[in-house]
């Protein structure tokens, strides 16, 4: 539980603090404050700190301030506060502001006239109070997700008191870091654990930031290695974009997403979480290009996920669709996409042609090629069933698409 940089900047009594850089990451959680008394900070922080730089004990020239920003970024601190005044650090060099902004590290200027004892007292007090509030909010959501609560009415009363908007239909998203086993194989336990915790914090910060401004926002809930979003309104494209951002932000680890069907009330959260987790399991197994799976679209994939050997699924796809792909062509998946359109339109050739934006005669020519290359007839119910399943896997896979 923690306070964000943005929330600290809004604390009464700290109005003279000014954000100079890193505005896009003011959502970052501040675990605690730390006053830098050494030349560097890398050996003295663990991630999540708001680091105060005074210049009292050491000469803080431009080179040293740039070093502190770089070390802060590498260590995963929440932000850096530089005290300025006539006696020590007169001003923050523009190069330091530029570097912090490029790296996305919140950089705050504090006048020496604002005493450190006041700042740390206000932040410490707010951290304790906010910790209690956030703990209560996440406790309520955790109870609802597990279905383990004394009374739904009591939960609703607590939620109203803590300003938790529960009476809104929601869809749940489950996320989990992938690649953790590789991390621990390739690094020492100490290095791997540190990298894992920093990545988990980056993931939480990213999710909290992504939710900023969303309608009826609820806190991100962390259950073990699972991160849960409870979203009032969400489009699949939004989540695909989020998954892409996470691939870049969390590398070399990544995170896949599982999306539930709609929960019309908070009493349905346990069911929705189960659906989101099932979708997540499929996403981690099939590793779709979009990075996510929607429970409503899984169907037979939930059965295929139970097959322990992925090679069996790959061979089924090759046997069913392999003859329709031609890597030597400019559009190697043209016939696969044509078959997909036909299946999606229930065999209606006119609607399939419209979906593909081609003439009906062109579609007929492609159908003839599909049947010739596959040795199967589209009138054969068994082939249509096999093709439907193979195409479902294909759409969820990393197979390239014709643009």
UniProtKB/TrEMBL annotation:
Pfam families: GGDEF_2, HTH_30, PucR. InterPro entries: CdaR-like_regulators (IPR051448), CdaR_GGDEF (IPR041522), Homeodomain-like_sf (IPR009057), PucR_C-HTH_dom (IPR025736), PucR_C-HTH_sf (IPR042070), PucR_dom (IPR012914). Residues 151-282 form the CdaR GGDEF-like domain. Residues 7-126 form the Purine catabolism PurC-like domain. SUPFAM superfamilies: Homeodomain-like (SSF46689). It comes from the Bacteria. Residues 335-393 form the PucR C-terminal helix-turn-helix domain. Belongs to the CdaR family. PANTHER family: CARBOHYDRATE DIACID REGULATOR, DNA-BINDING TRANSCRIPTIONAL ACTIVATOR ADER. This is PucR family transcriptional regulator ligand-binding domain-containing protein. It comes from Pseudomonas triclosanedens.
């Amino acid at each position: 539980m923690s306070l964000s940089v943005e929330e600290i900047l809004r604390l009464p009594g700290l109005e003279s603090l000014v954000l100079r850089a890193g505005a896009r990451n003011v959502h970052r959680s501040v675990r605690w404050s730390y006053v830098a008394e050494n030349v560097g900070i890398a050996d003295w922080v663990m991630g999540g700190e708001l680091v105060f730089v005074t210049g009292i004990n050491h000469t803080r020239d431009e080179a040293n301030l740039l070093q502190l920003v770089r070390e802060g970024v590498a260590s995963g601190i929440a932000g850096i506060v530089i005290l300025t005044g006539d006696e020590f650090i007169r001003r923050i060099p523009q190069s330091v502001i530029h570097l912090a902004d490029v790296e996305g590290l919140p950089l705050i200027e504090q006048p020496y006239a604002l005493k450190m004892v006041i700042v740390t007292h206000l932040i410490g007090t707010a951290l304790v109070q906010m910790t209690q509030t956030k703990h209560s909010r996440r406790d309520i959501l955790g109870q609802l997700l597990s279905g383990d609560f004394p009374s739904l009415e009591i939960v609703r009363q607590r939620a109203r008191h803590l300003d938790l908007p529960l009476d809104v239909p929601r869809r749940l998203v489950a996320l989990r870091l992938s690649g953790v086993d590789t991390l621990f194989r390739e690094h020492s336990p100490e290095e791997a654990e540190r990298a894992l915790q920093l990545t988990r914090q980056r993931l939480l910060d990213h999710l909290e930031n992504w939710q900023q401004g969303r309608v009826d926002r609820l806190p991100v809930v962390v259950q073990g290695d699972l991160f849960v979003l409870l979203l009032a309104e969400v489009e699949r494209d939004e989540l695909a974009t989020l998954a892409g951002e996470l691939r870049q932000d969390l590398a070399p680890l990544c995170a896949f997403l599982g999306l539930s069907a709609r929960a019309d009330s908070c009493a349905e959260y346990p069911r929705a979480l189960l659906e989101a987790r099932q979708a997540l399991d499929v996403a981690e197994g099939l590793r779709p290009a979009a990075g996510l799976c929607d429970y409503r679209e899984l169907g037979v994939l939930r059965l295929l996920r139970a097959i322990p050997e992925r090679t069996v699924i790959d061979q089924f796809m090759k046997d069913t669709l392999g003859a329709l792909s031609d890597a030597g062509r400019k559009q190697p998946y043209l016939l696969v996409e044509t078959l997909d359109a036909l299946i999606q339109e229930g065999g209606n050739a006119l609607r399939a042609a419209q979906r593909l934006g081609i003439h009906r005669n062109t579609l007929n020519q492609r159908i003839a090629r599909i049947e010739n290359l596959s040795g199967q007839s589209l009138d054969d119910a068994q082939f249509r069933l096999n093709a439907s399943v193979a195409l479902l896997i294909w759409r969820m896979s990393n197979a390239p698409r014709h643009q």
